[in-house]
Amino acid sequence: MAEQLTALSIMQDAPVIPVIVLRDVNHAVSMAKALVAGGIRVLEVTLRTPQGLAAIEAIAKSVPEAIVGAGTVRNAADARAAAAAGARFAVSPGYTTSVGDACRDARLALLPGVATSSEIMQAQQDGFNELKFFPALQAGGINMLKAWQGPFAEVRFCPTGGITTANAAEFLALKNVVCVGGSWLVPTDTLERGDWEHITLLAREAAALPRKA
């Protein structure tokens, strides 16, 4: 059985966690290998498409050097299905205690999504101090994260939603941001044409981003 990871170790692995939406499971393994080759091995494959679980399973079996997880985990059933497919962590767009409990039972590290102070307090009450700030830009962006540094000094964030190559460094410069989540590492058109070298280049650039936390 693989060693159980912590949310913090997932966040610290690289400055960017790619948010991956796959519509063709045949792209999964080549894409994962391309990202790993560029220095990005923590991969969030979302459950937004019917191919999500199959893609997680393919990567878990064929790219052991990758750390594959499930995104868009919204309920306990999603968490159980993700674990069964071989996911090692989960990312949720929001947070409920039932999702937190299910991830613990399934030995999945969880990055719960929060957008308000009340949601942070609920997640902390259940033992989670490493959180996904989502949707980051729409929910207040840099200024919100700065405001939270006072009352939630011990919390570490992974802002996701509206993060791009143009603003990632600004987020990573904050002392309460460990990493960011972004979809720019795996552009849809790049996937469709199978340009794995370009994905490796994007991953290499992302892995080299400086961060403060």
UniProtKB/TrEMBL annotation:
- Recite the UniProt keywords alphabetically: Carbohydrate metabolism, Lyase, Schiff base
A single GO molecular function term of this UniProt record: 2-dehydro-3-deoxy-phosphogluconate aldolase activity
User: What is an example of a Pfam family matching this protein?
Assistant: Aldolase
EC class (word) = lyase
Reaction equations catalysed: 2-dehydro-3-deoxy-6-phospho-D-gluconate = D-glyceraldehyde 3-phosphate + pyruvate
To which pathway does this protein belong? Carbohydrate acid metabolism; 2-dehydro-3-deoxy-D-gluconate degradation; D-glyceraldehyde 3-phosphate and pyruvate from 2-dehydro-3-deoxy-D-gluconate: step 2/2
Q: Please name the SUPFAM superfamilies in this protein's record.
A: Aldolase
Name the Enzyme Commission number(s) assigned to this protein: 4.1.2.14
> What does the subunit comment say?
Homotrimer.
Spell out the family assignment given in the record's similarity comment.
Answer: Belongs to the KHG/KDPG aldolase family.
Q: What is this protein called?
A: 2-dehydro-3-deoxy-phosphogluconate aldolase
Q: Which species is this record about?
A: Comamonas squillarum
